[in-house]
Amino acid sequence: MQAAADKKVLLEVEHLKQYFPVKTDSLFKPKAYVQAVDDISFKLYEGETLSIVGESGCGKSTTGRAILRLDEPTDGKVYYSGTDILGLNKKDMRKLRGDLQVIFQDPFASLNPRQTVKQILNEAMAIQEVVEKSKRMDRMQELLGYVGLPQEALDRYPHEFSGGQRQRIGIARALAVNPKLIICDEAVSALDVSVQAQVLNLLKKLQKQFGLTFLFISHDLSVVRHISDRVMVMYLGKVVEIADKKDLFDTPLHPYTRALLSSIPVPNPELKRERIILKGDVPSPINPPKGCRFHTRCPFATEKCKTEEPALRELDTNHMVSCHYAENFK
Amino acid sequence: MMTENNKPILEVKGLKTHFFTKRGVSKAVDGIDFSLHKGETLGIVGESGCGKSITSLSILRLIPSPPGKIAGGQVLFKGKDLVTMSEDEMRRVRGNEISMIFQEPMTSLNPVLPVGEQIAEALRMHQNMGRKAAWEKSVEMLKLVGIPSPEKRAKQEPFQLSGGMRQRVMIAMALACTPEVLIADEPTTALDVTIQAQILELIKDLQNRLGMGVIMITHDLGVVAETCDTVAVMYAGNIIEHAPTEKIFANPRHPYTQGLLDSLPKIHEDQEELQTIEGSVPSPYNMPAGCRFASRCPHQQPICHEKQPELIEQNDGVKVRCWMYTDQWTAKMVKEEAVK
Predict the structure, then answer these.
(1) Given A113, B34, B186, B226, which residue has the most CB atoms within 10 angstroms?
(2) Is ipTM strictly over 0.85?
(3) To the nearest whole angstrom, how far is the Cα of A222 from the nearest Cα of chain B?
């Protein structure tokens, strides 16, 4: 990785908030909100892979959906190449969606079961008007070649493919419109390891070939380690740590990141590690703890952590962490 | 913890579970053998569709029938064959002497019954406990699995609990009758890693205290490495390698096991490209005559496509189903070398 200064920022998220209203018991009680994403900011540089990791309910998928405006964010700014996309009208947003594509976890749920692969790819190109009608057939064949599917695949339906192949169709569809940024939301989580390896290799190859930028959302830290340049760890709607991959895995500075990394079972029985087992469950995002949100489970929590929320600060070059005592973990 | 001296508590011999459907016969589990000792943890690993879950359901005779049927083999539990047992006798074994934990606790718990009641029900059925005694024991079990304020939680319904807590309730229920064998089918797959670490620790701890044999069914090789004493790797309805855990990870023999381990992204090292296994699993309706992995195998020879190899024990106790580790192979390879 080069220094941050000479890289171009492709996407910048500022103070993004996403609250979802929930039903309350009584009409007269104040309205309650799930604070799925609560005031997060980060930058995504051109050509890099930034991963968002965290456990279920931490807001990683919500962040991805908010950037694409699949759910309208409550507050904040999202700049894409300098324009605030939250301010765009429907027509301009649709045009921009050609640049921003997404690959979802379950390829079966995100492909129309009544369309053939040809129709699926054709529709994507037609909506974005990226390829002339007469050239679309050639383009489709080219796309199948990129993702490693046979040409016969064009006339088949999604159910005729295996999970890994369906994910390849999803990737082909995303590529069809010449995107710049692809958000991969748990894109390989549903696949078996040997198939997962194939899809990960494919994503890496395509990134090089087309200079793509990836926002890779995953709960699987080994996959994240493999694919990312930088990693962002979220907990209960907040960013707790952002760093270059190597720094994050070698010297995690937030107690939560440390616990998370130590919890992963490693496929090597010889390796006996010290494991930090966290007590209890993740608190509810409807009524998150005051102060540092992790203090209820943190083995190092003090009185200060219960009352004062730590800011995300840069402790090392490109290594941001939000913990009052992060220096102690260096 | 392998205990060699005593007899295995559970022995599976040549178990075959087939599904008879309109499309033909699906040989989901096709002749598998293994045994489990007291206090031992056996891991069964493999990718989706390899037959690992069907194996566990077959042991407890929970296969939907029709279309499924145990087409052959024996499951010996303390010397008695579960396959031929009457349904009445089977019911006494299930949940009492052999228990099971499923992957998704929400779908395997009764959604409209307080969780304490569900545990107490098992105790009343199997142990003939009175209502009050059963309830008390059920609260005690919830406490054992580490649920805070168990008296309060016992009265709650499953939807009021978090995923990790529900899985704890499942474990409490499975262990309420102090079974001798616990089958855990992907017990932590639906959970987050920090909760997974808690649950695995809990199972290990309870096993040490209660001395049961555990069959851990999972697709996660990391979970296997950290919890199991021995591992059986399944592929297309067969066990293709069965060995002590350290040996499988240090020196995998079967080309499929090797491929599986190579395709894992490693958390402690960087690599540019991941190894993959070319091709795909054969259809269970149309299994090849020879080795089921042959068409994907980098070492394939004509013999692999002709005849299926047996699961053969090597000198160091590792069992492997591959022609490469037989006399035929060595003789043939030597001849080929000579020709060259």
Answers:
(1) B226
(2) no
(3) 5
